[in-house]
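> Could you send the Glycosyltransferase prediction when you get a chance?

Sure thing. Input:
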Amino acid sequence: MYWNMFKKIIYIYIYIYIYKMIPKLVHNIWIQGYNNLPENLKTSYNNIKELNPEWKFIFWHENMIIDLLKKYPNIYKVYQNIENLPGLLNILALKSDIARYIIMKKYGGLYFDLDFICRASFNNLFNKKKYKDYTIFIASSKIDFLDYIYPFSKPKYCSCFMAFKKEHPIWNKVFDIILKATNAYEIGSALDISLQNSNEYKIIVLNQINGHYKCKNQKSICYTPVESSWNFIRPILQFINCNHIQIFFIFAILIIFAIFYILKYYNAVLLRNMHIIKSIKRKKNDIIYKFINTI
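Output:
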């Protein structure tokens, strides 16, 4: 009797522990299918698979995505009518956003954009014992141009690289935003908005993942090269982000030189005006002196 109770407790514990773990599934999306994936991305993708033999990789194309979305009719309707939403975001990128959200909700695991290059195993991200109670692992990034104008803005959570447990409750909030979305931006930022407004979940920000506009460093496990972004302005923003100290000093030096030349010009103008005033006073005195002598 006690043995059976003990076994039940152990099974319950194991179930809860496994349920909380990040499944060793890797999801990637290319709407047009693997055969239409550019060769450089295929090379990176296959290299990442070789680095992670313990992980199961699932490559999603549009037909697979549609089959899954049909189980969620309301979300599928948004997916079908995505082109009618106002906004500047790429249609394929928006479809990929909805697809990655529903895939992560249904299966959990790890998702990353196919423009990532990795040089170490994903196990390095999740193996720490202190992370055992965490169910959200996600990269951060500076996505909007305003993030560079206003330096005190929070880094945004980036769905370009993320890991979740299966059926995480945060996805309910994400899909609430998507179903009410009136423009493309709200869909693209639905996960970030949901996480920023939720305090009840433990979140690990993956600092070893260098997402959009971030700089590659020696500790990076994965990073995105500039040339493969959806965003044409990204090379400029990444250059600013990675070289902001040098840019600051260059601007500071230019401002100092500008102030120096302005002051120099101001002094020159001031001296010239003083000289003119003295000349006028001298001429005025000469006229008065001559007038007195004629009397």
